Amino acid sequence: MKPILNKSQRIGIFIDIQNLYHSAKNIYHGRVNYRELIKEVIAGRQLIRALAYVVKSETGDTSRQDNQAPTSDEGAFFEALQKAGLELRVKDLQTYAGGFKKADWDVGMAVDAIRLAPSLDAVILITGDGDFVPLVDYLKWGLGRHVEVAAFGRSASGRLKESADYFINLEKLPKIILKK
Question: Which of 29, 128, 149, 177 has the least CB density, counted as fewest CB within 10 Å?
Fold first, then answer.
């Protein structure tokens, strides 16, 4: 089903930066143009909040291959996200005994989406992570919100694509992927 593109529709955007970054890097050997991405998903509607979920590395160096927001300069990357109009949610990379590292914002992203849903007509989740299927179902059936999911079609969970009211395949949008 196509999204309701009503200019008075209030939307909130929730971006899983790690998911998007790794998909763009590994599948397309490029990076995401966040300014263009935001413009495309807003589609002329009224943006209430645009939140980006990032993980801060221990050293600030994101050139490593961990599951963290990657660029040669983490501070510059975060600043670029803010200049694109995104409000950052930052979490430190967690390191466990034995060197295991975890960078996960799933619960925080879900809580923010549920918390903001009463002031929104539509929720846009920008992630391909299938762990968000229960969130999509709750926002739709529990709170009566229209839910759109935007992700790269080749790396997005099939269940997530099916559960959304509308799926935006980022592969089909021009100017979203910047080649290195």
Answer: 29
